[in-house]
Specification:
With about 130 residues, the chain is an alpha/beta fold. Helix 2 runs parallel beside helix 3. The two termini are about 15 Å apart.
């Protein structure tokens, strides 16, 4: 919960026009994607942690890449891990990028700016 707050505050400071939808767990996000209808906001980027309760980032990443409607949406792993093996595993499973969570709010803003710039998100883009 604290990590989601930290990320949300960073997004709001970097670009308050971005619509951010957060989920407690990978299963919740996957259920959202499976149930998304034409009226749902367009998703431009999915950012997830490796360590989540019911479904972690790698399982979620694999599930998203199996869904025709979602497989081309970039999935970024944003994790406390800085272990090179974790990064390589995520990238080999189809993650667009792997970012280690920074220790300070200022560093968090730098990582979020880099992430948004890397994916050329326009104002009002949706992150899931």
């Amino acid at each position: 919960m604290e990590d989601r707050w930290f990320f949300r505050e960073g997004i709001l400071e970097v670009d308050a026009t971005i619509l951010l939808t957060q989920f407690e767990d990978g299963t919740d996000l996957l259920n959202y994607l499976l149930g998304a209808t034409s009226g749902a906001p367009e998703v431009h980027l999915i950012v997830c942690d490796m360590q989540m309760n019911q479904m972690g980032g790698i399982g979620l990443l694999e599930a998203i890449k199996q869904l025709d409607a979602w497989k081309d949406i970039p999935v970024v792993i944003f994790s406390t891990s800085s272990f090179e093996g974790d990064m390589k595993q995520c990238l080999s499973k189809g993650a667009a990028a792997f970012f280690s969570k920074p220790g300070t709010y200022g560093e968090n803003l730098l990582v979020i700016r880099q992430m948004l710039r890397q994916y050329s998100l326009q104002p009002a883009a949706t992150l899931a």
